[in-house]
Amino acid sequence: MKNFKTILSILILVFVTQKSFSEMQVSANYAIIQDHLSGEILYEKDADTRIYPASMTKIMTTIVAFDFIKSGETSFDELIIVSENAWRMSQSGYSSMFIMLDDQVSVFDLLMGIIIVSGNDACVALAEGLSGNEAAFAVVMNEKAKEIGMEDTNFSNSSGISDPDNYSTVRDILKMSRYLIINYPEFYEYFKEKTFTWDRTGGDPITQGNRNPLLYKNIGVDGIKTGFLTVEKYSLSSSMLNKGRRINVVGSGFASKNSRSRESAKMLSWGYRTFDTVKIALKNSPIDSLKVWEGKKKIVEAVTFEDVYLSIPKRKKKSIKAVMEYTGPIKAPIRKGDKIGLLNIYINGELKKKVNLYSNENIKRANIFSRLFNSLNYLVWGDV
């Protein structure tokens, strides 16, 4: 028979904020706000319209490089020879690290030149060094975009400079940004560095500041990447961590640098003020125990294979209830990882989310004498 077991009931007392969800106004052509832990979208404005991502493209450039490092195909210490193609990018008026022709630059320094000072020359040098040429590197970028689930994106170069075939959406940029933070937390730390000094060969050291204006506001922002193209105006993918909560924002089409900084900070702040993040379950952490039939153990621990969080508007009281649904008792044998039920999460009586529950252990079938005893016990007492 199917059983329902309430395992969590939380009453959250919250207060009405000064601005309700419907009153949110953003001075950008395209915008999206996300609760990082839950993954829920808190606000969006034309989030699926194609944009030119400009230097936000470099987020993917770094992700691909991190993949190469993780797989052992390169390392921070590998030296890459600067080609004329890469060197010319430092002479063209774009953001540059100012690498020099035929110099040998480490992968680490090139990454810092991309992450902190948004060097287009560093992007080209890294792409050529890791894939032979920039076009081949762009193929890997697009393969990674599909893996991440970016549905309307194409990368034609590693830097995001003007190219009609280099396009994305703010929703896709958000997916890419969140992927970086989740999968490469140790490398993501570099995105909050405010300066980078390039101790170049044959010249004085060059110190440049991070292009992200929100890093200097001391509001908890620790990334990610700015962008600018004349056709697209100003853009920014940003993320802010405050008291264990993280809000991600992507905006594009800001009219000015000041607008980009002001409006992005406003969106991040709005996400914190307007919503709470509620933890329901943690990955691989036992939630509860379910009864087992004909097993060497009488109960089995149930776990989720993902962290489960909810984003709750602070406009009024919300009641969250998590109910475990399963067909039980669960018959042995049970293998670790077997699906054994569902966690149904309700808000004010409305089903909000379903999460699969899995066995956290192997449970062998009991011997025949134990099974017979349990069967008789069930017939007499109605319980296993």
- Morphology call: globular
Please identify the structural class as seen in this structure. Answer: alpha+beta
CATH superfamily of the largest domain: DD-peptidase/beta-lactamase superfamily
- Provide the helix percentage: 25-40%
Provide an overview of this structure:
With 384 residues, the protein is α+β, with helices and mostly antiparallel strands. It has 2 domains: 113 residues, Peptidoglycan synthesis regulatory factor (PBP3), Domain 2 (Sandwich); 227 residues, Beta-lactamase. It has 9 helices and 18 strands. The protein has a 7-stranded mixed β-sheet, with no helix packed on it. A 5-stranded antiparallel β-sheet has the order 3-2-10-9-8, sandwiched between helices. A two-stranded antiparallel ribbon has the order 4-5. Helix 4 packs across helix 5. The longest helix has 18 residues. The radius of gyration is 26 Å and the shape is globular. The protein starts with a strand and ends with a helix. The relative contact order is 0.16. About 3% of the residues have low confidence.
